[in-house]
Amino acid sequence: MLCPSQVAKLRPVPRPLLSAARRLYDDLRCSISSSSLAQVSPCVDEDCSDFLPWLERKAGVEISSFLSVGKSVYGRSLFASKAIRAGDSILKVPFNVEISPDDLLPEIRSLNIGNVAKLAAVVLKEQKMGQDSEWAPYIRSLPQPEEMHSTVFWSNEELEMIKESLVYQRTIDKKVGMEREFSVLRHALDHQFPEVSKYMNFEDFMHACALVESRAWESSKGYSLIPFADFLNHDGLAKAVLLRDEQKQFSEVIADRNYAPGEQVLISYGKFSNAILLLDFGFTLPHNIHDEISVTGEPDKQTTRKKAMGAYSNVRIQISVPLQDPLYKMKLYLLQRHCLQITCKFGFSKWSSDSFTIKEVRSVKGKGTGIPQSLRAAARVLSCTSLEELNDMEEEATQNDGRLGRRPLKNFNREIQAHQLLLSHITRLIDQYNASAKLMKPTGCPASKRDGIRRSMACELLAGELRNLKSAASWLVSYTTDR
Ligand SMILES: C[S@@+](CC[C@H](N)C(=O)[O-])C[C@H]1O[C@@H](n2cnc3c(N)ncnc32)[C@H](O)[C@@H]1O
């Protein structure tokens, strides 16, 4: 949760999903202890019974009189140890017990690796120190790789389940990025601390990176791990978030509702789609109101967590200008200039930094707010059949706000064709998703608990994306037939 959001969540209206993926998810929920099911009564966590007293001694102040560490289906969790009322300050963790890249030697801190990798290097260092680490009780409490489900841990076979989603490609890219950062780190350690580098392997580094990504908060030092606060699990509907007071130097959580003793306390990590939750946190939500689909291209890999919330790509629709189109060059030029980053050779660039994000269109009669204007503009350009039409579009853009193709085409048939083009792409994607969902249908019990959990996550991811695609398709059907 690299960026704590202070924005309250909206309560989604639950709606039934009738897709194969949804049904499959429901089947699985019944048959396994799903990662997405809340548990109210706490399971005592013997391993962590001394954790809070230890941290309070280290901090020199009381951190919480309201919470205790326990276990739920989400892993370690915080539970109300007495009645909590909305507005209570339930924990305050001072900055002096945060772990940050400041704990690295300057030579490592200045390496050309990202903030996640830097903090992962601190975790690795503390892990290697074992009982001698001043953070030993905290390091011991962190989940082991086999308990984590971020997609970087998925096998090729498991990843095949989500190959329709851009999470698939993002996972591959992420692993490649981690390998690069690992080799930079290893190279530096080889020179300065050969005895440390000898014991470092990529699997440990990947585990440390996944820990950081799923539990560090953005801070003035880059990212920081905040022990105890990071036992709080996520609820997409919660309004409580982790607040940081840079002046008073502590992080705090204020309860957003009353809790009875024994209830699990949940906060919101931010407005994350299932794509982000799965890629970075290793879980999904059954009805995630923040699910969205991006069309063509991906966000800049360096996006901050906040930007990524809006721009993360889940699905890519590739609409290319056919090479045999007599207006190929002109269309490419217009799209490149106004709508997308395009590589001439391959049509729409695979790595275009622009992305069209489709959100659920709430009503078929709505204004198509879920379908981005830039995508509709691109479709309008693509459907033109004469240079004159393209010139007219460009002239209209110059006379208005400079943005191309934002108004319906004057030629009614052409306007319909443009939207039919989009509809055909989206329909093709829906077919691909449905085919994937069918393949995912279990033939019996999942081979293992892990297999069942990952299957249900794949189903939830695809079901959310499919829901958005279907709502976009319904809107397009209505636009092209009801006029
Ligand atoms: C900040 S940690 C929370 C503490 C964690 N449960 C532990 O065992 O240390 C975030 C991780 O908790 C789990 N988690 C949090 N919220 C969840 C939810 N709503 N459903 C399933 N897993 C969740 C995920 O494994 C996630 O990567």
UniProtKB/TrEMBL annotation:
Gene3D superfamilies the record matches: Rubisco LSMT, substrate-binding domain, set domain protein methyltransferase, domain 1
Superkingdom assignment: Eukaryota
Protein's UniProt keywords contain Lyase: no
UniProt-listed GO biological process terms: methylation
The SET domain, residue ranges: 59-270
Keywords: Methyltransferase, S-adenosyl-L-methionine, Transferase
GO MF: protein-lysine N-methyltransferase activity
Protein name as annotated: Actin-histidine N-methyltransferase-like isoform X1
Lineage of origin: Eukaryota, Viridiplantae, Streptophyta, Embryophyta, Tracheophyta
